[in-house]
Amino acid sequence: MQADFWLQRWGAGQIGFHQSEVNKDLQQYWSSLNVAPGARVLVPLCGKSQDMSWLRGQGYHVVGAELSEAAVESYFTERSERPHITSHGDFKVYAAPGIEIWCGDFFALTVLDIGHCAAFYDRAAMIALPADMRERYVRQLEALMPQTCSGLLITLEYDQTLLEGPPFSVPHTWLHRVMSGNWEVTKVGGQDTLHSSAKGVRAGLERMDEHVYVLGRL
Questions:
Q1: The domain 1-11+37-117 belongs to what CATH superfamily?
Q2: Does residue 95 have a pLDDT over 80?
Q3: For residues 35 and 58, what is the distance between their CA atoms, to the nearest angstrom?
Q4: What is the pLDDT at residue 165?
Q5: pLDDT digit string (tens) for 4-28?
Q6: Rounded distance, CA 46 to CA 43, Å?
Q7: For 157-172, what is each residue's pLDDT tens digit?
Q8: Which of 79, 155, 167, 207 keeps 20 to 30 A from 135, CA to CA?
Q9: What is the Cα–Cα distance from 69 to 151, expressed in whole angstroms?
Q10: Which percentage of the chain shows pLDDT scores above 70?
């Protein structure tokens, strides 16, 4: 989606994609990545996700990337934290103990910006992007992550002809075709989540499958 779309959604408070509780898949499967405490963890298109606080609580340093300054400010305001704010090129960086959020265009980030991240967590980034942007997202993720790293990825798969995104359907076959050349892709969990999508039910979907993957760089 274009940047203006997401900025308008945050500005209008239309953030149905935001989860008020920590994601259960994150809590269940993160330990299988064996990421050392203290490591930097990249969270693309992070919004004001509760999941970042959970990762901080596990002893990791979260490196978020988010387009909307309103989302970034809300994350810290809701926790009564006063971040240190600096400018780095086209980015504003909000930092507090255990976290830094780079506010700007994710596709403009470089390794020199974010440093060495041992792992990434993606619950809402890939599914926020239409098909014509997803492969670019994968390539950018690969450019930012080191040769030895891992990641936890959560996607949705459903009949896109019945329901337009976001969130967009990311077919299992697409993911393997685009990522398996550079990543070991292992599906570790999943369930039908149609009951939690009023839009999906209204659109006549029969299923909305959530897939949980552990990824390892090859």
A1: Vaccinia Virus protein VP39 (3.40.50.150)
A2: yes
A3: 10
A4: 86
A5: 765 566 566 655 555 679 999 999 9
A6: 6
A7: 999 999 998 899 999 9
A8: 207
A9: 25
A10: 92
The residue with greater pLDDT, 194 or 19, is 194
**Structural Rg of the chain based on CA atoms:** 17
pLDDT tens-digit profile of 30-85?
999 999 999 999 999 999 999 999 999 999 999 999 999 999 999 999 999 999 99
Percent of the chain whose predicted confidence (pLDDT) is above 90:
87
Handedness of CA 40, 48, 24, 211 (dihedral sign): negative
Positive or negative, the CA dihedral 190, 191, 196, 198 is: positive
Q: 123-218: which CATH number, 3.40.50.150, 2.30.30.230, 3.30.70.990, 3.40.50.2300?
A: 3.40.50.150
Residue 204's Cβ-count burial label (10 Å; 0-12, 13-18, 19+) is exposed
CATH topology agreement for domains 1-11+37-117 and 123-218: yes
Strand order in the sheet with 84-88: 84-88, 91-96, 99-103, 61-66, 40-43, 119-122, 150-157, 209-217, 183-192
140 close to 179: Cβ distance less than 8 angstroms: no
At 79, is the secondary structure helix, strand, or coil? Answer: coil
Q: How far is CA 19 from CA 22, 40, 46, 60, 120, in A?
A: 7, 23, 11, 21, 18
Residue positions counted in the chain = 218
